[in-house]
């Protein structure tokens, strides 16, 4: 097998007589219940270099990355060699930084504990001040200057970016020579992504070896020096990033790197006057206990025409999900009207008639959470047709099966429980569940975020096909990702709860008017520029 | 640059998973003795023999005689059903009320409904349970059914809170919204999904609650509430025969052991049922 | 009419305390099995105990009344109250072991011919403050008890005395004027709660003054009371320096405290406790015989018990030995459907009744009461009640009678059974037979639980009360008892022992006196060896 | 934080409502009891005339609502009223009973916390191994044993057979502190069940917390095992345990009644039992107020602590 050849040749860096690696993995094999999830992997992390592991989810890149930290899945059999530079263990920045921040302790707790070990040899009375100084230095190195106040907060009181930087500061304070960054940009908008890229680049500039686990190829391309492409636990190809991008040798690498948008812009349907869905003077609020209601969204006017697809773009927290949920009847706390074919829709799903429910369907971001883990997928999908279209069970199941396979799900998979399906498969099933209602309006809320490139492309293709096949369906695509937005006829841009700009997709993408849209476009462009595309 | 000595990693991480089957077997073994006695005991109890003097050991009686001179073994055979039944019935009853209340409270979006359902229970929660039992029992002089009702009542507020908390958790999941988008019935949503999802939490709670209920039933008997003072009932036997502890310990020890076996066994079973099934999803992200 | 014997009051109290302790109220006693009492049951106090030794403090554990306890002797309601009251105060008379009145503060009494005026002479005695006990003190005490606005328990007992007409005839002599002839007047003087307090005494919680063998040192309601020897006691100073009454409502607690050496005297133990510790030498078990009558009360004024054949059938249904063994754990003696076994005037000549199911069936058949169904009221109000009820239910089943046992509230049992129901469990502490009759068996009795209303029976009682001669009176009592034996409403199947436990060094504890009599809980004659 | 303040205010309001409800409930129940203090006092001498006289002397002949209103009016001024049976002020009952009960409860809680947490942490630390199995099964078993049975057992073994400890607190009055040996068994009995439930709860919480990414993360960064356990994992296991701790007040009360009877300790439990038996309504009422207020305050305290420990629970968006 070709993979064999590639894996036996360690990363290109080792052929150089460059600096010694600060961490090295040799012939790592991790086995669970006799099944290898990582097999024969070699990896060298060099100071000041970014080594990226890319691959679809389940390819073993996370297991490999965590091996550097000495962490393995429970019950795993591990063979091989893992070496890390002795002066400081590996640092770790997980995908969700909040998960490694202790929710019950202030941000300073772990930082203090780390710093304390480093000031032991100082006289007792100097320790506190010295530890404090080190912590503040680390925070400032992690681009959190003047963080005294921040130290007293609890993790949940920080923004996602702050959390990530605090976790980074922990690694810096520790003096880690290697930092493993696990999917740091997944699900982030372009602006955030670019900030993270800068940050990781700064780390490398400090002489730290960065091991980047990611399926975000833009980021990998922008950052990495060395890339290892993984599939099914093995490294199928590795080499310097430029070489890989320009001349991928392995078929899988080629597939992975084929990033061009699958399809763009069909002809927008001739503007047939009456919109299928119309939003007027929508104001949505969130109520969180003590603070009273806060307005999170204001949308004076938004319309969706039959057969049209509309992308709603914005950063996280911009209110785009709230907008979608208002339309779907899942966010009750709003004023203003949502009209379906000119008749107002009840505010809550609970008050909507079956026809109304069927007309507006919603696909959730987290497909796994949106399925009942105890029932087979097919059953759950079929229920839509039973409940909303009055089909009997038999024919509903038939139709569900047809829809599911039509979306590319293997028939045998449909009888499984959700936990036995992959994320991509589940998202297809979720799409099928909504489609079975024969909706007039389909709202897709970030349905591709968190998926790897290949899977994402598959889903987007499915959506494109759908738009082509069912001319009557209007699509509303909620996304932070301009690439996905290209799929749509029109784009609406949300920022801080306000609808700042909307218009035809090509117009927004080529000549944005609002400053926010402009900055969004620019960052994306910059990221892409870095990738050298 | 120094390197850490390489570690041979093989087997280091082979974690021993507690065997679930073993846990089940242990729980079953412990609980089967009292359960079999409770269920089948009355069938084999036979007719009451002549009374002997109280608290005499031996003399044709396997475990001697009790405080009114009855055969202890026969009382043991007869006494399991009321205990087990009262405790099980009380636990079941508590959930019978707590489940709908908790589920409705968690699933409704009408604040007032939730408040009307749950606030009164909060008030009840502030009444010391034994005080409540003492008072109600002296007003109503309940029989076994009454005692079960009373013990259930005492347990309702707490159970409802747990159901509500667990159900609120489940109800906040997108799966419930997805069901709503499908126009699914309330019943299927509340019972079929939310109810199913909180089953583990409930099972865990039911285990401790059953123990608590048994404790309450036994303590109520100690305080002379709910059961005839000479009833064939393990809890009553423990209490009533304890005066003879020095003369004829069997009359106390046997029923006491059976009660402890009942509660311990049921807890072991619930524990086993709850024990996190080993990672099934090999492909998912490993837990650190 | 007559005195209320002390007896029964304590029981409700007990039981109230016993609330916690389903098994608490022990009561029942003797090891009927072995047929012998404990060691030293041969005679009364002192014998075999050696020479009394002076000094020491004795701690005695009783079931008590909680924080509501008081040292007001007229409010005495529980055994603990009575034990404390008799340590601090005296009555004019008290009951001997056979429940006959023995002179105490009264040196002697003398009736006129018609038995409605009695001269009582007081002995020379002083209160703890040194003042002599006078006729005025006696009259004040009795008038306080009889105050209609207070519910003092002894008020009913003093009812025969016309207190307005009664007067002091000297410093230590009183003439009591009675409303009707009362041959058993001394019983009134011995009545439960009829203690003599100093004139104008109203407050008793702070160092009450009495004429009893001990003086009050401290009192914490529901916890403890410490009394010190009164050296000028008229009967001679007690042997003990001090006595402390402690309250422990749980029987097990009293036993444990005794075993653990925390007290030297534990009142009211379970028969099984007694059996467990009787012969192991750690503690001394004292059984006070005939302390509590045990029976069933049939309401004679309503079906089915208005037919005397049914009552007689029930007499024959009872297997008394089984009841004593089962319900009293063997700690007692069987009864013969008459109150007061071993007491003065008891008709012990009547043949012992035995179970006879054949005759019982025949009698029921005659009465047309085959397949009879009766509800038996019981309650955990006293030890052995519910046990007795179920045992009797099983016995009755053999005679074709279906008994439905109904367990009622403990707290209101006695007032519940007074007028309602047909058959109930019943018990009574020790009191003179005359008191039993006057309180329970006359048309005007206030607690006539058998609804025994017979003019001729009332007349016999009046006749007895007007008979000065003891022998003649005894003959009248015998007639009355024969009548009750034949077709009365009380099925009296046993007499429970009252069981005490003492440390082995405690000497001089009387072994004969039923609970509530003079020598019961009498600590001035006790010493520590 | 205004959020916190309004939370406390709302909880206090609820607490007042709860206490009022408890008092009303208790009053209704005690009124509904068959018989009253007079009947109870008359006992087996239920002479109707005497009962009437007692009733009048106790002022029980007045309508129930009048008595309640008067009592409530007094309560507003801090006056708990007077006992029906003895005429002494209820506050005196409460004051005298409070000492021993408070001492028992305080000692129990003081031992409960370290013991419960210690056992729980120990079991969690050795999850699945012998120590864990042992602790888990022992706590499970002991949890099922009612106080009275355990009390009898302990007294039999330690006081009577071995003679190490006094079997009761007879004669020590309210001055229990002077006799620490006498307190050992009662506290042990009181401790038994709460410790078990607490230990199990802490164990479960700790198992989860120790396996949580943040604990792994801390360990990975070289933080010592003990420090990870106590400073990082424990605070997360604490919140449910603290809630349970507040619930323990109810248990303690149940336990205290039994334990006080068993060991002859003249505390509130004894007062309560006597008052219920004597139908001494004002005393029962007073106790209901005390218990109600205690429950409310402790629950509030627990909520606040839990809020502090798991800040997300309260304020989080």
From TrEMBL, chain A:
Domain of life (superkingdom): Bacteria
The ABC transporter domain, residue ranges: 23-257, 277-521
Classification via Gene3D superfamilies: P-loop containing nucleotide triphosphate hydrolases
Entry-linked Pfam families: ABC_tran, oligo_HPY
Keyword Zinc in record: no
Region Disordered: start-end pairs: 1-20
UniProt keyword list: ATP-binding, Cell inner membrane, Cell membrane, Membrane, Nucleotide-binding, Translocase, Transport
GO molecular function, one term: ATP binding
Membrane topology: Peripheral membrane protein
Keyword ATP-binding on entry: yes
Location(s) in or outside the cell: Cell membrane
Main localisation: membrane
Family: Belongs to the ABC transporter superfamily.
Protein name, entry field: ABC transporter ATP-binding protein
Origin species: Streptomyces nigrescens
Taxonomic path: Bacteria, Bacillati, Actinomycetota, Actinomycetes, Kitasatosporales
UniProtKB/TrEMBL annotation, chain B:
InterPro entries: BP-dependent_transpt_permease, MetI-like, MetI-like_sf
Coiled-coil blocks: none
Bilayer topology term: Multi-pass membrane protein
Origin superkingdom: Bacteria
Transmembrane segments: 24-45, 83-107, 127-154, 210-229, 249-270
Pfam entry (one): BPD_transp_1
Compartments where located: Cell membrane
Keyword RNA-binding among record annotations: no
Keywords from the named record: Cell membrane, Membrane, Transmembrane, Transmembrane helix, Transport
Domain ABC transmembrane type-1: 84-270
Family recorded in the similarity comment: Belongs to the binding-protein-dependent transport system permease family.
Protein name: Peptide ABC transporter permease
Organism the protein comes from: Streptomyces nigrescens
Lineage, top ranks: Bacteria, Bacillati, Actinomycetota, Actinomycetes, Kitasatosporales
Automatic annotation (TrEMBL), chain C:
Stored PROSITE patterns: TAT (PS51318)
Positions of the UniProt region annotated as Disordered: 36-57
Top-rank taxon: Bacteria
CDD domains: PBP2_NikA_DppA_OppA_like_17
Ranges where the Solute-binding protein family domain occurs: 102-429
Biased composition annotated in UniProt, kind: Basic and acidic residues: 42-52
Pfam families: SBP_bac_5
Protein name, per record: ABC transporter substrate-binding protein
Organism from which the protein derives: Streptomyces nigrescens
From TrEMBL, chain D:
Bilayer topology annotation: Multi-pass membrane protein
Name of the protein: ABC transporter permease
Family named by the database record: Belongs to the binding-protein-dependent transport system permease family.
Keywords: Cell membrane, Membrane, Transmembrane, Transmembrane helix, Transport
Residues annotated as domain ABC transmembrane type-1: 98-306
PROSITE patterns, sorted: ABC_TM1 (PS50928)
Subcellular localization, as worded in the UniProt entry: Cell membrane
Entries under Gene3D superfamilies matching the protein: MetI-like (1.10.3720.10)
CDD domains per the UniProt record, alphabetical: TM_PBP2 (cd06261)
Bilayer-crossing regions: 102-122, 134-164, 176-196, 251-277, 283-302
Pfam families: BPD_transp_1, BPD_transp_1_N
Organism: Streptomyces nigrescens
Main localization of the protein described in the UniProt heading: membrane
